[in-house]
Amino acid sequence: QATPEQELGRLPLGSRPAKRREGGVESLRAIPWIFAWTQTRLMLPAWLGWEAALSKALERGEGEVLAQMREQWPFFRTRIDMLEMVLAKADADIARLYDERLVTAELQHLGAHLRDLLSQACNVVLGLTGQTQLLAHSPETLEFISLRNAYLDPLHLLQAELLSRSRNREASLDSPLELALLVSVAGIAAGLRNTG
């Protein structure tokens, strides 16, 4: 409910349908599902699981091992750097906006739990990198993200409203509502500079 995953399947995006012809959740294609979570700024598929794995390693006292891995293994260092960049683009307040606007009351606790996990993921990466702010080692990247957020935040507000309106009435693909939704999807993807 919190992502535009349903709507992505109706919009003329990509070369393949968002879902295979038959089946339930297992019939979803990965790219539209990941893209949908990126649109809400929760960035869930990029970090979910990593926060738990890294937390467990730190709880077991393996912080030095992780630091060595980050220093000596280019793959691990790159993965942590990418994780840090994605977490810097994530925004729990924007994700909460989608939940409040689109998710039924009985399911909103799930979004709150995921936002808590996002916060844990940020804290674990900060602990691992020894920084007090994500991307502190790359002020240029941090500035680029901050500048783009000034344009992205209103797009998210607009998209959440468009999704709500679209779900509350039938709209044809060529309706102004659906066209505005398509523009919001493209704008957010361009502003984030990645799709998932």
UniProtKB/TrEMBL annotation:
Keywords: Lyase, Pyruvate. GO terms for cellular component: cytosol. GO terms for biological process: carbon fixation; tricarboxylic acid cycle. It comes from the Bacteria. The keyword Lyase applies. GO terms for molecular function: phosphoenolpyruvate carboxylase activity. PANTHER family: PHOSPHOENOLPYRUVATE CARBOXYLASE (PTHR30523). Forms oxaloacetate, a four-carbon dicarboxylic acid source for the tricarboxylic acid cycle. This is Phosphoenolpyruvate carboxylase. The lineage of its organism: Bacteria, Pseudomonadati, Pseudomonadota, Gammaproteobacteria, Pseudomonadales.
